Amino acid sequence: MPPRAAPNRGGPRRARGGRTPFASEGRRGGAGRGSQLGANIPSTAAPNLVPTIGVRRPGFGTAGRPLMLEVNSFELKAEENNIAHYDAVTPDNLSGKRKFVLFQHLQNEYPDIFTPKLVYDGQKMAYSTQSINLGDQNARQFNVAFPRTGGGNAAGREPQVYGITLVKVATINTEVLRRFVDGKQAWDENISNALMAYNIAIRTEPNLQNPYRGRSFYIHADRQNIGGGLEVWRGIFQSVRPVIGRLVVNIDLSATTMYREGPLVRLINEFYGNSPDLPPLYMVPGHVRFPPQYAKVRLLRFLRNLRVSVCSTGEGRPRAINGLTTNGADAEFFDTREGARISVADYFNQIGLPLQYPSAICVVLGKDAKVPLEMCTVLRGQFANRDTHLGPNQVADVLKFATKKPVERMDAIKKGIQVTLQFGQSNYIAQFGLTITEQPMKVKARIIDPPNIRYSDTDFRLSIMLRFSRLDKKFKVPVTIQTWGIAIYESSRRFSAPILQEMITAFQRACARVGINIVNVEPVTRYITNPQGVIETQLRQLGVDCIKKYKTPPHLLLVVLPEGANEIYTAVKHCGDVTMGVATQCLIARKCTRAKDQYWANVMLKVNVKLGGINSISESGIMDYITDPANPAIVIGADVIHPPPHSQGRPSFTAVVGSVDSNAAKYVSTSHVQVGRREMIVDLKEMVKNVLEKYKDYRLHMEKKAAEHLNPKRLFFFRDGVSEGEFDQVLKQGQCPCIHYACEELGMSPKITLIVVGKRHHNQMFPSNNRENKNAPAGTVIDTDITHPLEFDFILQSHEGILGTSRPAHYSVLLDVRHYADAMQALSYALCHVYAPACRSVSIPAPVYYADGECARAKNRFQPGDQLGMSDTGTQASGGAVPDLEAYKRAYKPINIIQENRMYFVVSHLFVLPLPCSNW
């Protein structure tokens, strides 16, 4: 497929010394743009070119070995027609599924108006290929009866009536889609609406038959019990996307957790039986031992909004659980319509339904209906609450269920198209003139070369060889450990003194292999007999023991933990990151007992960088444009992590991580708190300034650079977690102006490149003729066929897949000074090789990985027990005041001054104690 933008230049130009440079001058996609980014972002289109949001594609890459792949995209052919767009105003108090069903009732009750039927998204938008008669105002309100089903007390009741208002808002000519994929039309609202109409059209039929959420629907026939009252269901994701020269349907597998259908009593028994930290529920006929209040709070959090049917009434309409009673059914009273006061248990005896468990509590349905547990049945196809916490065994079961090797995954996708989706059988798809092929697309990919990895000056090996070998090289800059200590939280019976000595010997041997020097080879050890005590006090006492023995605080503490010691681990992270000052490595007792050399090699990768060392550097022609002394560069990664769904008032955490050395191997981090669920980083300017100042300080004091080489000439900014719909906001309102102002205030003027790294997409690669059932090799890149029709993006699989089907990363270049496709792809791939805790390439560039890790650690910067509700699984206590943002900011502790310039964020197994040493 020829490029839709600027013509291919025949590959990157060659510079002196055989280098492949980035072009430092020139127009970005033809737009007149200098190296600076002003407050007002100019259009990216030159005269006579279609405007774009991000960078216009400069051409296609040519480097690397060609490879044919199958992808999970299926070509969609669409007849050009006009689509009528309607706003559907429905009652706010109905769920999306109820609205969806109600809309189908509407169309069934008025067949003379709704022929052919509209497609509806379950919220607000509806589309049709033919306009319907809504009167002179193109608007009409309909009253729709939602009849009750079932017998019993529900029979004879009046059906509920809801009002739905339809308003025609636009007519879309789908020619705009053809022009857009052909590169002749800029993105606008009409294109967005046309794509939305097609997406809703292909989802309507399966959504009518199956539970759905977002762009996936889930299949009852393909599910597995994972315990705790939950199941995992297989789903099918589908999305219409515009790519170069065509439309495609991206189809993938998904998985989600559902409540188990059936008796509510069974569900509750399974919930308690799966929670080792909760007392069991004991139920036999005639006798009940119900757990205490704190366990009931956990149960209510699990059950809230779960919909059940009540066998005593025969109502078909499900009712939601809103609460639990304090007393059992035999001690919970209510007033009847006749004015009598009666217990719930006696009432059910009177109507001929005596209870087996009269002393068990009841659920509260609706406003105040108290119904015994045994009278309730959980309905099929209900999604587990988004904040439901899964235990380790449940997580393992879900991952095992969701993991499929490439051939198995593609076969399941093809089967889903032929058996489940059956596109050709859908009247909705036919109405819109859509035809979807059943065979996956074949695309041309390339395997680009990895960078060379250098460890010590004498140890050099190609990265591609390192992927399959154990780490047996000395580090580029190994550290020296003066003194060290070991805190053991496992019992001496399970982790005995001989096992401890074996661990010490193995650790010493591993240090020697990678070049880490231990001055005092014997550590100070201490078994912690009271793991419920104050962790910080216990670790400080170990530090005091080191001072008594060696006259100096420890440089490193190893902490041996038992399985499931999450609370100890969290406390260790807090007191380490915030209040103390010695790097510490946490180890699981079971794993470090008689561990193999490779285990300790992985530990060394973490320990060395925590103490200020450098494991390895990436060496290749492309890295010269970061390491070039005349044109120094800084690489920055940024990310935001949001609170769990349904949590009230909790903040989001932001992180910015930047390189400070000349090889982009050493990074520093800064993290802030901001209002919850806001994707744009509010304090980005100050955070970038902080990183730039540390970059300049490191080059001055540690690398002894001359004054003229202290400021970066290039700035590569990798942003994680931004959706395509937010790209324009990133450029014009969010991130780019903040980066520019940060540089301007420090007197710096680097050329800025901004790249969004997407992980939550569904494009996957499947090697053709894959007899060995392997993933596409690391370094596989696609920038044709399934990429954006106009803008500079590419899909890169940078890691070797071991389990299941690897998911590549999607890179979208939003701001640039005209770098060529090959150069940008090679740079992104090279940065996937400098992630310190790994000796093989990872799935996203190291600065993005670090920023993600720093965000995940941020919640541990609060004092344990501060009542701010920062537990992973907790929500704000009912009845208590929700802290405001300023309260979170005041409680958010800064990183210890000694650790703030070290890579404490590379992994989560780290904490700190005070050390009399340089910040660097």
UniProtKB/TrEMBL annotation:
Tree of life domain: Eukaryota
Compositionally biased tracts (Low complexity): 1-10
GO molecular function: RNA binding
Organism (species): Hypholoma sublateritium (strain FD-334 SS-4)
InterPro entries: ArgoL1, ArgoL2, Argonaute_Mid_dom, Argonaute_N, PAZ_dom, PAZ_dom_sf, Piwi, RNaseH-like_sf
Pfam families, per database record: ArgoL1, ArgoL2, ArgoMid, ArgoN, PAZ, Piwi
Every Piwi domain range: 556-852
Region named Disordered: 1-43
Domain PAZ: 263-380
Protein name listed in UniProt: Uncharacterized protein
